[in-house]
Design a protein that fits this description.
four-stranded mixed sheet; 1 helix; 6 strands; 8% helix; 118 residues; mainly beta; two-stranded antiparallel ribbon
């Protein structure tokens, strides 16, 4: 196979990465392989493209824009933010049961005496 027969693989000049968690959520935008900014909407993607000299871009053309982690209509994260299962001041190392937090005694002095032993 000669070089002229090889398939030509090109990278689109604009890559819009997946949604990042934040208030509000945003997407990072790369232009020509370099990070160009973060966008909170499609309009901001267009503004970033214009700021680097790319005018009149077609956001639906895969040869111009590659959308990672969703299309141009995806601007919220797939999974909502969940606070950690422990409360402030509580240790992180405790295990959780299926039905919620399980309290475990810290030391032998907090355990209830075993009635079967004498």
């Amino acid at each position: 196979m000669t070089e002229s027969e090889l398939p030509r693989i090109t990278r689109p000049p604009i890559v819009v990465l997946g949604v990042q968690p934040g208030q509000p959520p945003y997407r990072l935008v790369e232009v020509a392989g370099e990070l160009a900014g973060k966008a909170h909407s499609v309009l901001e993607v267009i503004e970033i493209a214009r700021s680097v000299g790319l005018d009149d871009i077609d956001l639906d053309d895969p040869d111009v824009v590659r959308w990672v982690g969703g299309d141009k209509f995806t601007w919220t994260s797939w999974w909502p933010y969940h606070p950690p299962p422990y409360e402030e001041g509580e240790r992180r190392g405790r295990r959780q049961g299926r039905r919620g937090r399980q309290e475990r005694p810290e030391g032998p002095e907090e355990r209830e005496p075993d009635e079967t032993r004498d």
